[in-house]
Amino acid sequence: MTTRQEPSFLDGVNLMFDRAAATLSIPHGLSEQIKLSNSVYQVRFPVRFQDEYTMFTGWRAVHSEHRLPVKGGIRFAPCVDQDEVEALAALMTYKCAIVNVPFGGSKGGLRINPREYNEEQLERITRRFARELISKGFISPSLNVPAPDMGTGAREMAWIADTYREQSPTDINALACVTGKPTTQGGISGRVEATGRGVQYALREFFRHPKDVALTGLKGTLEGKRAVVQGLGNVGYHAAKFLSEEDDCKIVAIVERDGAILSERGLVVEDVLAHVREHGGVAGFPNADYVENGLQVLEADCDILIPAALERQITRENAPRIRARLIAEAANGPVTFDADEILRANGKVMLPDVFLNAGGVVVSYFEWIKNISHIRFGRLGRRAEEVRGRNTIDLFEQMMNRPVPATMQEKLLHGADELDLVRSGLDDSMRLAYQEIREVLHTKNNIPDLRTAAFVVAVEKVLRTYSEMGA
Ligand code: NAD
Fold it and tell me: Which domains does the chain have, with CATH numbers?
């Protein structure tokens, strides 16, 4: 007997879409229009290093242009392919709709192991890839705006922005062609931490709803919850850091490329990061147990499992052994379609990627607005807020005839700066999005879980846009 293969990443996303679409009445034809990518561009280009040429292959998929620009990261990874890029582009469409960011979905990938190149070589490769995408309209402030993803960061985004500016010197909005730039190059405070911060805000909101927490069998707040985190990159590091430092979660294991470290006392995330930077992995981290087979540690006993590395980590093979009650999908696509069914059957609750890791695109949206409005958030209002705070303190002191305590004075005299506003906007976006998802879960028929509910929220919004446009 042959056993069916697990659906590919893209097929899995489409099956999740179908599950949600089956609960809605979508006009014939529109369902396919929403589900399938509008276009995919594949490019091969050579880069010369000394006397040799190396060929590279990259993709940019545009999933849905129901809103423009389309938005989505560019990843540099050795096994990127078209299926993966299309799957990630589709997730971007749904993600933007869920957090009410008015963008369509896109994603790019370059098949490369960035660790095999030095900075100068990476800059040449990135600029060449960017030129290819710009010349075909796949990077543009009004049409298609990339951002960082696996293997890329602020540095690559600055190179892409500069390449675009060189090719479009008269475009006054050139900086808005890409987000996730360094703050000195038109970036926004809080973008680097945004996805991990969004994971924290989303988990906080989940734990504000005892009815939802009860679905996991857990109780109370985030305090004292034992979490396992896979991937100590941008997303995993920030999520683990904020959850442990600000919400008193205990990070009992961190899984990296070279294995996993475990400590029931809780790992200090900053120390682990410093160790990884110095030694290239988690092995040898003091006062913790080391396990070479990192994947196995996803099955460890814990309250919250946070896969924050890459897709297809929980498959139908290991899903039956997952013990965490709550799986917080910080990465894109960490749970396959088959694994999702097994986990649900086992009573596990999943906070789906399309919602949970949307913090990055929310703050990217703020950065894009900053770039096209050419002004830093808080620049106009901050001092006025401080004057209002001063007046409030003076009035209170006059009327009560006693001084306002120093800590309260400090708070009242602090006008919101860009970082305060970004965090406030991100918190608001994640909270409202979760509330919309749980509303669907608890009020609509035939919605078995949060993932289906999130897809329903997304598909309804995209559908509404198409219907209103008369497409
Ligand atoms: P990153 O490259 O900064 O970090 C990835 C981390 O995972 C690295 O530390 C790497 O060493 C580790 N890793 C790689 N393979 C591993 C393995 N087999 N086992 C354990 N660890 C492994 O990438 P990132 O930006 O943090 O992205 C992580 C995930 O989050 C991806 O799925 C990405 O699509 C998703 N995501 C990222 C953002 C963002 O803003 N960066 C936004 C939304 C979603």
Answer: 9-184 (3.40.50.10860)
**Residue 340: CB partners within 8 Å, gap ≥ 6?**
16, 350, 451
Q: Which of 235, 256, 354 to mutate to test the pocket of ligand 1 (most atoms within 8 A of CB)?
A: 235
Q: How confident is the model at residue 2 (pLDDT cuts 50, 70, 90)?
A: low
pLDDT of residue 471: 53
Q: What is the pLDDT of residues 299-324, one digit of tens each?
A: 999 999 999 999 999 999 999 999 99
Amino acid at 237: Y
Residue 466's pLDDT is 87
Atom 40 of ligand 1: nearest residue by CA position: 360
Token representation of residue 444? 């609509």
- Give the model confidence (pLDDT) of 204-225 as tens digits: 999 999 999 999 999 999 999 9
Name beta bridge partners: 253.
228, 262
Per DSSP bridges, beta strands 289-291 and 326-328 are unpaired
Pairing of β 250-256 and β 259-262 = antiparallel
Q: What is the spatial distance between Cα 452 and Cα 13, in angstroms, rounded to a whole number?
A: 11
Cα(242)–Cα(237) distance, rounded to whole angstroms? 9
| Whether residue 107 lies in the annotated active site | yes
Inter-residue contact 93 to 458 (CB < 8 Å): yes
In tens, the pLDDT along 186-200 reads 999 999 999 999 999
Backbone Cα Rg of the chain: 23
Residue 130 to residue 156: CA distance in whole angstroms: 10
* Separation of alpha carbons 162 and 172, rounded Å: 13
Q: For a substitution probing ligand 1, which of 256, 290, 355, 367 has the most ligand atoms within 8 Å of its CB?
A: 256
**Rounded Cα distance, 246 and 233, in Å:** 19
Give one DSSP letter per residue of 252-274, joined into a string: EEEEETTEEEE-TT---HHHHHH
Task: List the beta strands (DSSP E) in 149-270.
Answer: 226-230, 250-256, 259-262
pTM of the prediction? 0.95
